[in-house]
Design a protein that fits this description.
Distance between the termini: 6 Å
Domain N-(5'phosphoribosyl) anthranilate isomerase (PRAI): 4-207
CATH superfamily: Aldolase class I
Pfam families: PRAI
Catalytic activity: N-(5-phospho-beta-D-ribosyl)anthranilate = 1-(2-carboxyphenylamino)-1-deoxy-D-ribulose 5-phosphate
Strand content: 15-25%
Pathway: Amino-acid biosynthesis; L-tryptophan biosynthesis; L-tryptophan from chorismate: step 3/5
Order of helices and strands: EHEHEHEHEEEHEEEH
Number of strands: 10
Strand order of the largest sheet: 1-2-3-4-5-6-7-8
Bound molecules: the ligand O=C(O)c1ccccc1NCC(=O)[C@H](O)[C@H](O)COP(=O)(O)O
Radius of gyration: 16 Å
Helix content: 25-40%
CATH topology: TIM Barrel
Number of domains: 1
Shape: globular
Number of helices: 6
Largest sheet: 8 strands, parallel, barrel
Enzyme class: isomerase
CATH architecture: Alpha-Beta Barrel
Length: 210
């Protein structure tokens, strides 16, 4: 069985659908340029319904101390997802500032990109292999780009890891089978428009990987 994270949730209805269909993680995005951006003050009460039912993930991109402090205070996430150029030293500071575990995202377009995982062995609780966004993209994630999943076939890593990038209800099972990923992550593939999560697509995605 593959477990899944539904990312970029902004409404009670879509969080409930994710929880009711067995999402293992639910994510809130804290990045001003994202159509999924939400404030820590709004995310806190909204995501409380997920506490103890799924891991609550705060997605950040080279966030400053002020934002991380607010995320820690209002959302109290189980994990902070580092989707920027954070170093292992910064990851340790993020842990201290938020009290949360770390999911480190590694952008992949070629097999050599997987080598970065070794540097995070003692510094992240989970890894996420996400597709490198197309040149000029305004966002480092959530863009629906994918990479060749067979690069991951037969590989093992020190931490549990997510496959992300361009997944949707139709390709999720095949992606899990080819890559061997224990965890999948999806955002735009379960939306009807940028930033608008579709309850039926969330349910279909989670059924596809169950
Ligand atoms: O989703 C966003 O808007 C976003 C913005 C900035 C940094 C990361 C972001 N998303 C992170 C995720 O975990 C996405 O789920 C992941 O990149 C996969 O996205 P998609 O290809 O759309 O499924």
């Amino acid at each position: 069985m593959t477990r899944a994270k539904i990312c970029g949730l902004t409404t009670a209805e879509t969080i409930d659908v994710a929880l009711d269909h067995g999402a293992a993680f639910v994510g809130a995005v804290f990045f001003a340029r994202s159509p999924r951006n939400i404030s820590p003050e709004d995310a806190g009460p909204l995501f409380e319904r997920a506490r103890g039912r799924a891991g609550i993930v705060a997605v950040t991109v080279d966030a400053d101390d002020d934002l991380l402090g607010r995320i820690g205070a209002y959302l109290k996430p189980d994990f902070v997802q580092l989707h920027g150029h954070e170093t292992v030293e910064r990851a340790a500071q993020v842990r201290r500032l938020t009290g949360a575990g770390i999911i480190k995202v590694l952008s992949v377009s070629a097999v050599e990109d997987l080598e970065a995982a070794a540097g995070w062995e003692d510094h992240a609780d989970h890894l996420m292999f996400d597709a490198k966004p197309p040149k000029g993209s305004a966002l480092p994630g959530g863009v629906g780009a994918s990479f060749d999943w067979s690069m991951l076939t037969g590989r093992s890593f020190a931490q549990p890891w997510f496959l992300a990038g361009g997944l949707n209800p139709k390709n999720a099972a095949q992606a899990a089978r080819i890559s061997g990923a224990p965890l999948l992550d999806v955002s735009s593939g379960v939306e009807s428009a940028p930033g608008v999560k579709d309850p039926a697509l969330i349910a279909a995605f989670l059924k596809a990987v169950a």
